[in-house]
Amino acid sequence: MAPIRLVSGFLTVGFWTLVSRLAGFGRDILIAAYLGAGPQAQAFLVAFALPNMFRRFFAEGAFNMAFVPLFSKKLEAGEDARDFAEAALAALAAALVALTVIAMVLMPWLVLAMAGGFAGDARLELATLYGRIAFPYILFISLTALLSGVLNATGRFMAAAAAPVLLNAGFIAALLAAARAGWDMGLTLAWTVPVAGVAQLALVWIAAERAGLRLRLRRPRLTPEIRRLAIIALPAALAGGVVQVNLLVGRQVASFYDGAIAWLAYADRLYQLPLGVVGIAIGVVLLPALSRHLRAGDAGAGQAALNQALVVSMALTVPAAVALAVIPGPLISVLFERGAFGAEDARATALALAIYGLGLPAFVLQKVLQPVFYAREDTRSPLRYALWSMLINAVAAVGLAVLIGFSGAAWGTTLAAWAMVFMLWRGARGIGAEVALFPETRRALPRIALASALMGAGLWLAAEALAPALATSGLRYGALAALVLGGAAVYGLAAVAMGAVHPRRMWAAMRRPGASG
């Protein structure tokens, strides 16, 4: 499989996403230490989820999935892509200002839609206050996402990938300052959200200007191109809405179990680390690449890009999923159990993490397969599949919660993710040659699975041997590091020995020149 620019772009996005996820992980460690799983933590997590939900719905989901292919094809054809980007920016900004005003008025009802279990207690008032402070973040982060799409389409990934670091670094600085100065933790977190949004927008705006892609703010107009963008984006928006409904079902189920919203959120943060580094990075780089190959009529390059994305993503994701499923207890206990976050919280969070781990490859495969549809401006098929996955999630989450408690929400998310992958794969095979697997890919995938299984067995045995050290203050951090690094070494050696990965080819692909800055 010939190395292509996909890997260099993936490494750029993956590195900065890793930095952001680690910073976000540090943020959540501090929130857990200072607030535990108490009312303030739950109220803030719901309030912060509101602008993030609409962000994924409007910007990263619907708008960018429609905008990036159209913008990339205009670039490939030598058309006026900047004028189109400015028109899209104006339309998105106008819609977001209107949405923000409406949300501020309806905030109590939005909170209840997210967490019905808050009704009648102090969490509702807190979440409403925090939500009104944090919600304007959606305007800044959505415009950031559009400008990021412009940069990514031109092969410039660094600034867009680095922008999320500012949010999490801001949270860490604010939490430490609040602890030192005695500020209200909840209010400090809430005010940090819009301030960080302004910083993120400034970063990508400056990067776009330096790249010669300066965009002017202008009056929004419903031009034929914007109408076309809206027509393509609408099914993607509905599909994004379905994804958010899946999350909403999980939060609703969790809101009726004291502490469960926080347990699921902390587990989500840990599994989002590999998901962000691998899945999001692959999706960000793959969509504009497939769009350009389609516009150029180069089906072979599109097939090579998707096969390479599949092997790279699974080589990194499958072992991570096995680790999350095999040693969730040591991971959560060592990383989170301190201060207000006790042993019961750690056990419940570890259970959720193990379940999410089983779904991790599915979440990443969605990021690999969805660009096949979006690059063809087909947003209706993913919507249809998402509606089925929503039904599966709702039935599983609510039905299982009756039997096994809050973890039913995590099971619903995982089962729905695998169902979505099955439908995307079947649908993609019918619309393009990109999903045809190379012989090398067919050989690599089972070997990756076998190497991961060997690693899982090694992790289980090592965790048993290191159990006393993992429970001892002063030793547990070193023991966890040894456990993780040992597992990575076992997997790496097994994967190379079995021929699942080829270091020389990966190194050649990493060194291949490409516009990834």
Overall outline: globular
**What is the distance, rounded to the nearest whole angstrom, between the alpha carbons of the first and last residues?**
24 Å
The number of distinct β-strands equals: 0
What would you report as the Rg, rounded to the nearest angstrom? 22 Å
Count the DSSP helices. 19
Largest sheet: none
State the helicity in percent bands. over 70%
Low-confidence stretches: 509-517
Number of domains: 2
Order of helices and strands: HHHHHHHHHHHHHHHHHHH
Q: Residue-averaged pLDDT, rounded?
A: 81
* Strand proportion: under 5%
Structural class: mainly alpha
Q: How does the SSE layout of this entry go?
A:
Layout: H1 5-35, H2 39-77, H3 81-105, H4 107-114, H5 122-134, H6 137-153, H7 158-181, H8 185-210, H9 224-255, H10 260-296, H11 299-326, H12 328-336, H13 343-374, H14 380-404, H15 407-429, H16 439-465, H17 467-470, H18 476-498, H19 503-511
Structure in words:
The protein folds into two domains: 5-437, no CATH class; 438-512, no CATH class. It has 19 helices and no strands. Residues 509-517 have low confidence and may be disordered. The protein has helices at residues 5-35, 39-77, 81-105, 107-114, 122-134, 137-153, 158-181, 185-210, 224-255, 260-296, 299-326, 328-336, 343-374, 380-404, 407-429, 439-465, 467-470, 476-498, 503-511. Helix 5 (122-134) runs parallel beside helix 8 and helix 7 (158-181) runs antiparallel to helix 8. The chain has 517 residues and is mostly helical.
